[in-house]
Amino acid sequence: MDIADGHLVTLAAQFSASQQRRHLLGKIIRIAEEQTKKTSEKLNHHQSTSQSIMEGMINSLESMLFGLGLEDDQEKKLMELANHTSLQLQEASRSTEDLDRELGVIVESLYSLMQKES
Questions:
Q1: What is the rounded CA–CA span in Å between residue 61 and residue 5?
Q2: pLDDT tens per residue, range 13-41
Q3: Structural domain boundaries of the chain?
Q4: C-beta separation of 103 from 34 below 8 A
Q5: Burial code of 20-31, b = ≥16 C-beta within 10 A, e = fewer?
Q6: Beta-carbon count within 10 A of 110 CB
């Protein structure tokens, strides 16, 4: 009877420790989800703001070119530079999308770890 009681106490302690780990892991997952969501929102805002700024700059540049008295090839070079820069910003935006996906992998990994704990 004493051996069974000792074994029962050990099992109860293991179960309690497992429950505490699951609870702690649940908290970590909730925090990671919240932070991932906030970061994703900031990345999306930054992406749209950058694109709007670039579009505004290109429109302003096009308007200004007429009044600067530049030759056609000079105007063309300036517009090519602006358009090239815009394309580079779009490429950079794609890398923020990759980062957003990578953040999601962290949360998925935590969920997977929690399932293994079950």
A1: 83
A2: 999 998 998 899 899 999 999 998 998 89
A3: 2-117
A4: no
A5: eeeeeeeeebee
A6: 18
The full length of the chain comes to 118
Contacts of 82 (CB under 8 A, 6+ apart): 57, 58, 61
pTM of the model: 0.66
Spatial contact of 43 and 60, defined as CB atoms under 8 Å apart: no
Report how far residue 59's alpha carbon sits from residue 34's, in angstroms, rounded to the nearest whole number.
38
**C-alpha closest to that of 54 among 86, 90, 88:** 86
d(CA 54, CA 73): 22
Residue whose token pair is 């609870």: 23
